[in-house]
Specification:
Layout: H1 3-7, H2 10-40, H3 45-60, H4 62-77, H5 80-88, H6 92-105, H7 118-130, H8 134-151, H9 156-182, E1 185-188, E2 191-194, H10 199-218, H11 230-247
Antiparallel strand pairs: 1-2
Helix pairs in contact: 2-5, 4-5, 4-11, 6-7, 10-11
């Protein structure tokens, strides 16, 4: 039995599926309790039902991006773990980056099933889980104090700083991973040569261009709904560019 068969085995589906089912049940319970609470305070049931339907509808296409992430990771990590990670708490950009970084630290040249071992998988799964858990842990102890601080008058600057810090952190993270692909450019005697794989750079450019188009369209009032599909659309555009370039 290959490592990929083991990662797609029945026990793996049972473990991951049980956790996903538990979270899904919790979501349904909260939905029912929220609906009852809305009725108790006199909210219009028609508007609440309309909100539920519209939220479910606008969640479908953006979730395509998550599905693409599961498909992309399933070739090396099996289906159960990516399904669990991206269904419960994981973020698409986080999971793929951490999995790749962890794979390289275990001696793998790339995140692939051909180089995957049981110890490599355990390391990757452990890092993917541990590195993202601190948001939940810190929220238990600090979230109430933080929200109380934001609710007080005159503390809008704190929220502004939080948004700026998060944006700066994300830009730094993305720049770090993008920089590795541009590191293939070498300058010798005034001439530039490239000794790396150009496919990731093409994907970056096409995805960024697609995202810019989505943002531009979403700024129009009649097309504000496009913003919900920007991530999935940009991912599909980037993957299509990689496939077309690979064929050419």
């Amino acid at each position: 039995m290959t490592i990929l068969n083991q990662l797609n085995s029945g026990p793996m589906y049972l473990i991951c599926g049980t956790i996903v089912a538990f979270v899904a049940v919790i979501c349904v319970i909260f939905l029912i309790r929220a609906y009852k609470a809305g009725k108790a305070i006199g909210m219009d049931t028609t508007k609440m039902k309309r909100t539920i339907i519209s939220s479910a509808t606008f969640s479908l296409l953006p979730s395509v991006g998550i599905l693409l992430g599961v498909i992309a990771l399933s070739g090396s990590l099996g289906t159960p773990l990516p399904w669990l990670r991206l269904s419960v708490i994981g973020a698409l950009h986080y999971e793929t980056q951490i999995a790749q970084a962890a794979a390289e630290q275990t001696g793998m040249t790339t995140l692939s099933a051909s180089e995957m071992t049981a110890s490599s998988f355990a390391t990757i799964a452990l890092l993917m889980s541990i590195c993202i858990m601190w948001g939940m842990v810190l929220s238990v102890f600090l979230n109430k104090k933080y929200t109380n601080k934001l609710s007080k008058s005159g503390n809008s600057s704190s929220a502004g700083f939080g948004d700026t810090a998060m944006t700066a952190m994300f830009i730094g993270l993305v720049s770090t991973y993008i920089g590795r692909y541009f590191g293939g450019f070498i300058s010798e005697n005034g001439l530039f040569t490239f000794n790396g794989d150009v496919t990731p750079i093409i994907v970056i450019v096409v995805s960024a261009a697609a995202m810019a188009i989505f943002i531009r369209l979403s700024q129009k009032k009649s097309l504000a709904w496009v913003d919900s599909f920007s991530i999935a659309g940009s991912m599909i555009a980037g993957m299509a560019a990689a496939a077309i370039f690979g064929l050419l």
